[in-house]
Write a structure and sequence with these properties.
Layout: H1 3-9, E1 17-21, E2 28-36, E3 40-44, E4 56-63, H2 65-68, E5 74-86, E6 91-96, E7 104-107, E8 118-119, H3 120-126, H4 132-138, E9 143-147, H5 171-177, E10 187-190, E11 202-206, E12 213-214, E13 225-229, E14 236-240, E15 247-249, E16 252-253, E17 260-261, E18 267-270, E19 274-279, H6 281-294
Parallel strand pairs: 11-12
Antiparallel strand pairs: 1-2, 1-4, 2-3, 3-6, 4-5, 5-6, 5-7, 8-10, 9-10, 9-19, 11-13, 13-14, 14-17, 15-16, 15-18, 18-19
Length: 297
Amino acid sequence: MTSRERRKHVRMQRQFEARLFNAKVKYEIEGLTENISQGGVYIRTRDWRSFQTGDQAIVTLFLPPSFTNREKMFGLRGNAIVRRVDNKKEGVALEFARELQEFQKVEHSEIAIKFRYKEISYYLRSVSDLEFVDLIRANPHGFLVEKSAGERTNNAVFQFNTLALDEDQSMRVIKRDFSMGNIYDAKVIEVRKRKFDTAKNTVAIGRAATNDIVIYDNLVSKTHAYFYLHPSSQDCYIVDCGSKNGTLLNGKVLKPFEQYKVADCDEICFGPQTKTVYFSSISFANFISELKDAHPV
């Protein structure tokens, strides 16, 4: 083995934030590296089901200042191919198209920090009945599903606009209204943290890229609201952060910085046109299962 080959296969056990883009899936996937070499990387991600062996991907690894001795974080970006999908450890093994030292350096300001949310069709396609337990375990605090916001306006950069739900809290009514053809394109937000900070029991929502849930709508404040996740139960609360255009729960404007408990089928509006419906994890899994039975993809 040459010295170059030895360098290629030396692995570093270090966790870095990573993003994977797979054109087949159409959104960026987040994960953490488990080990890295010049020739490849293993990334643990909750979205490992999105990949198959042989898939092409673009991978970006984020190196913090503490590792590089630079003032700011920067990324290394390059092409890779999926060599293994690990369902036990929930990750993917990638082989780089070229060595890591030849990857493109990307300054933090150049990195597009946009979250491309999954659609209903993803869960119908990718989650089997046996995997619903894993889905619930990974997302104990529930999901938001987009709801029709009525007419579009020019102010909205990112809108929820495809799904229509009846105001009745009955699951039977919801199933009836979900029969529309474009339900499969409805976006889903997993209510969980994406950022590493000290506020372990909160999920921040707003227009700024520093939030856990980023909503690209000019009528949503940079720091708009947050979910409070009760540490000893699965209860979820919504809190408005004094947003300019308000947060509504079932049509009621929330008082800033007060906690309001959310329940299945509650409508939550962030500003006047970003409208969502909340599902607990179990209800969401049941809903997907019933939708799959009624309208197989």
